[in-house]
């Protein structure tokens, strides 16, 4: 399952970069931003598919992270090309931090529950 996840993630990242090179309307700011969202999604799904977690955690986290990261990918595509005063970028960072805190909390709870 982890090999399939990595293969799909690398394929999506390659497609994103390829489209960014082909289409001139695909903004220079949005290509790395959407690539970071895809990398973040791959790492989070990889960490949440740990065998030490129960099946319910793995399945629910996979659905939650996938849905949130689809929304973040769409937000990355429609984000303005500015770092300063970019509320959409700040919201994306806040959501990503919450995702990482959730995975850290689950890993901590799982480690100390045994």
Low-confidence stretches: none
Number of strands: 0
State the major sheet.
none
Count of helix runs: 4
Indicate the structural class: mainly alpha
Compact overview of the structure:
With 114 residues, the protein is an all-alpha fold.
Layout: helices, strands, pairs:
Blueprint: H1 2-22, H2 30-48, H3 55-77, H4 87-113
Helix pairs in contact: 1-2, 2-3, 2-4, 3-4
Describe the model.
There is one protein chain. It contains 4 helices and no strands. With 114 residues, the protein is mainly α. It has one domain. α2 runs antiparallel to α3, α2 runs parallel beside α4 and α3 runs antiparallel to α4. It is flat and about 50 Å long. It starts with a helix and ends with a helix.
What features would you highlight for this structure?
114 residues, mainly alpha, flat
């Amino acid at each position: 399952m982890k090999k399939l996840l990595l293969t799909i993630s690398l394929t999506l990242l390659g497609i994103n970069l390829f489209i960014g090179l082909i289409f001139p309307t695909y903004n220079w700011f949005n290509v790395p931003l959407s690539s970071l969202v895809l990398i973040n999604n791959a790492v989070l799904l990889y960490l949440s598919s740990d065998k030490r977690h129960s099946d319910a955690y793995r399945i629910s986290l996979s659905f939650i992270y996938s849905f949130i990261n689809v929304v973040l990918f769409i937000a990355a595509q429609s984000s303005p090309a500015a770092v300063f005063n970019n509320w959409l970028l700040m919201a994306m960072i806040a959501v990503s931090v919450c995702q990482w805190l959730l995975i850290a909390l689950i890993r901590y709870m799982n480690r100390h529950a045994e």
